[in-house]
Amino acid sequence: MGAKELEQVWANMARAAKRFDGDEREPPKLIAVSKTYGADDIVPVIEAGQRDFGENRVQEAQGKWPELRAQYPDLTLHLIGPLQTNKTKDAVALFDVIHSVDREKVARYLKKEMDAQGKNIPLFVQVNIGEEEQKSGIAPDHTVEFVRYCREDLGLDIQGLMAIPPVGEPAAPFFARLVELGKLAGLSKFSMGMSADYETAIEMGASYVRVGSAIFGARDYG
Ligand SMILES: *Cc1c(COP(=O)(O)O)cnc(C)c1O
C-alpha cells in the first residue's frame, strides 16, 4: 500500500471534481490520514508527491512528524481528531490546520494558546451532523451561533465545517446538510469524505477529503 493507491485516489478525485456542478471553487485537496502508520509507510507517500497529512491524536503525531517535517519542510499537517484541552499547546505548536473545533472550551483554549504562540491557525468547526449521542461536534441547530461566536467574539480564523456522517448510512444527505449549514453560517469550505465516500463528498462540494485506509491499508486500531 502507498504510492500506487495514492495515485488511484488522486485520479478518482479528479473525476469526481468534474461531476461537481456548484459554484466555482478550488480543486478539492486530499489529506492522507496516516494515523497508526509510521515513517516507513509515510515516506513513500511523501515521495510520490502528497503534501497534506492528517493525524487524529496529538501525542502520536508528536512522535513521528517533527522528524519528517525537518526532512520535508513543505508539508501541511492537519489535526482531524478530538482535541483534549490539555493538549492545546502541543497541537498549536505542531499542526497547520485544525479540523476538530467541537466545543466552546476548545475554541477558548485555542484562542489563548494561539495568542501565546503568535499564531492564527486556520480552523474547521466539527458538526455532529447525524446528531449522534456518542459523537463529538456542535449540534446542527447551534452551528451558526457557534461559528459567529468563534469568529466575532474570539477572532478565530474559521474556514469551514467538518463532519463525520453516521456509520452504515448513505453519507450524501449528511454532506448536503453540512453544505446547507455552511451557507447559513457564511462558510464555503467543507472537510468531509473518507475512504468509503470521498468521491461523493467531492461531487457535493468538499474542499478537503480525509482518506486513510484507501491509501495506507486497513488499520489494526485507530
Ligand atoms: C481515521 C479518520 C479518517 C480516515 O478514515 P478512512 O476510512 O481510513 O479513510 C478520516 N477522518 C477522521 C476524523 C478520522 O479519524
TrEMBL record:
Residue numbers of N6-(pyridoxal phosphate)lysine PTMs: 35
Keyword match Calcium: no
Domain Alanine racemase N-terminal per the UniProt entry, residue ranges: 6-219
InterPro entries documented for this protein: Ala_racemase_N, PLP-binding_barrel, PyrdxlP_homeostasis
Entry keyword set: Pyridoxal phosphate
UniProt-listed HAMAP family: PLP_homeostasis
NCBIfam families: YggS family pyridoxal phosphate-dependent enzyme
Function: Pyridoxal 5'-phosphate (PLP)-binding protein, which is involved in PLP homeostasis.
Family as reported in the entry's similarity comment: Belongs to the pyridoxal phosphate-binding protein YggS/PROSC family.
Protein name in the entry: Pyridoxal phosphate homeostasis protein
Organism: Maritalea mediterranea
Lineage: Bacteria, Pseudomonadati, Pseudomonadota, Alphaproteobacteria, Hyphomicrobiales
